[in-house]
Amino acid sequence: MFSELYQDLETGVTHSHPLHIAAACALGLGLLCPGTARAETITVFAASSLTTALAEIETGFEAASGHDLVIALAGSSALARQIQQGAPADIFLSASPDWMDVLEADGLIELDARFDLLGNRLVLVAHGDAPAVEIGPDFDLMARLGDGRLAMALVESVPAGVYGKAALQSLGLWEAVAPQVAQADNVRAALAFVATGEAPLGIVYATDATADARVTIVGTFPENSHPPIVYPVADLANRDTPAEAEFLAYLRGPQARVAFERQGFTVLAH
Q: Does the annotation flag 163 for ligand binding?
């Protein structure tokens, strides 16, 4: 289920998604099946940009395994800080290698259970219908923005905001637009600013843009304008259970691949 346990995680988008699947089966002698006996709860901390894909993956994994997932969604920076403070998570799925590197340096992840799972693209979105633009050094972002605000995730900590700032800096656009940036706690909150019309434009992941029909992708940032967008996943070092290994294997499997690709992610893991 999508947890409400971590509402202090700078999110604004924590979801309640009760999808409990009871894995009970009886044998002829009234004994519980092995799957039921070993059913466990796995707590997953995941970047908010994975909201839609993980809802589908949760349903499939719980049905296939008999385990329960508790998924807490927020900006990767907020989640990493909670893990540093001892939050009882089992799996961390970050939108940036940098925050996973921080936890690795702190000895908080299993080194042999970390791998790069997904890739993504960075896009400019507009509220409602809007004409497409070519994003490059000659793009007049300020003319498109007018007196409005540019919605972005936190530009110094949340991966989508960090990537966005890097892209604007590399294109020579950051200095002019910085005073008009409206920063949100995570990328889904930045998307909401644009979807509701509070900001005319925003910078989000391509996968987020497909989650709300009220926004239009007007341009894609050149891949060489920012560091590669990579989502690593790791088993945290606080405990080690077979259920955690099962979930990591499921994330590499065909059902998860379909869910991720349906949302526009590039699947890196095999």
A: no
77 is in an annotated binding site: no
Domain spans, the chain:
34-119+230-267, 122-225
Q: Domain 122-225 adopts which CATH fold? A: D-Maltodextrin-Binding Protein; domain 2 (3.40.190)
3 labelled ligand-binding:
no
Contact 74, 10 (CB under 8 A): yes
Question: Is the domain defined by 34-119+230-267 classed in CATH 3.40.190.10?
Answer: yes
- Whether 160 has a binding-site annotation, put simply, is yes
**34-119+230-267 and 122-225: identical CATH topology:** yes
Binding site annotation covers 187?
Answer: yes
Number of Cβ within 10 Å of residue 43's Cβ equals 19
d(Cα 21, Cα 30) in Å, to the nearest integer?
Answer: 20
pLDDT in tens, the chain (270 residues): 544 333 334 333 333 343 332 333 333 333 334 444 478 999 999 999 999 999 999 999 999 999 999 999 999 999 999 999 999 999 999 999 999 999 999 999 998 999 999 999 999 999 999 999 999 999 999 999 999 999 999 999 999 999 999 999 999 999 999 999 999 999 999 999 999 999 999 999 999 998 899 999 999 999 999 999 999 999 999 888 999 999 999 999 999 999 999 999 999 977
Q: Which tokens sit at 19?
A: 């999808």
